[in-house]
Amino acid sequence: MKVFMIGGTGLLGSAAAQMFIDQGHSVKSMALPPLPQGAPIPEEMEIIWGNYIEKTDDELLALMSDCDTFVFAAGVDERVEFPAPVYEAYRKYNIEPVRRFLTLAKKCGIKNCVILGSYFSYFAKTCPEMKLTEWHPYIRSRIEQEEVALSFADGDMNVAILELPYIFGTQPGRKPVWVILIEQITNMDKSGHVTMYPKGGTTMVTVRQVAQCIVGAAEKNKGGNAYPIGYYNLTWDDFLKIVHEAMGTPNRKIIHIAKWMFRLFGHTMMKKYAANNVEPGINAVELAEIMCMNTFIDKKWAVSLGVTEDDIKSAIFDSVKLSVDAFTGAQHLVEMKGE
Question: What whole-number distance in Å separates Cα of residue 238 and Cα of residue 258?
Fold first, then answer.
């Protein structure tokens, strides 16, 4: 395969690019500078530095015309803050780029497309009673992104959406998304003795497993499909024990907070967002419904794409250690950005 990727220097994109190359495929990527210092970017990958939003369709078609596979490993998630209306930001960075690139992919005869999405979409579809798309702009945008992407699937082009969960692993020089977790835990009790968290849990994967999903979807997917991705289902307690150990506070106690307490905290957060002229992609009050359940996913879909066992504890440990360095200022790291 000849792969054209948006986001090939990112945490997930670079891991997938290396796996594509290791399996004999070629990869060309458009990416935003700067390159994180020390990042293991494949030497064989052709990199075009620039912002695709600023490129004309003809310029992008010229880059894509000799490829047969397209991967969108870019966009923003709910952790990036925007002023209201936040949905417009998600439309700009997550929805419209997919519409644009798949339109171009059709024009130049690309056969296989892989779009990185969110596991929130899976739960929005399987748990309609939670009304996740009504409460959370980010989740609604991910559903729209899927609908747009799958509308292009036909007998000439295959489209796969990877509904990705919590992901652990690091890229040297890049700020992990888990810095916010370290900040929250640290601020709960600066003495390091107590972490207050709800009961519940989530599914998770490693960066290597996401790369396997991307390559597997490009090679195996037929038609239009959304794949709910999960492999390791951990309760918050089991997860936090690993986090505490990585933070150097293995004896830190976990105190469970009730859903009503989480919702009360959510009201405080919503007031802070409003004061800062920020509209969150995830409603902090209604987030309690998600955090207090087990958002587990059967690993069968991931396995069908070729995902194999990995060391999730080490991946969490590494992510937390780098997040602590970022939080304390011990390392200067590149952050996620839309453009």
Answer: 18
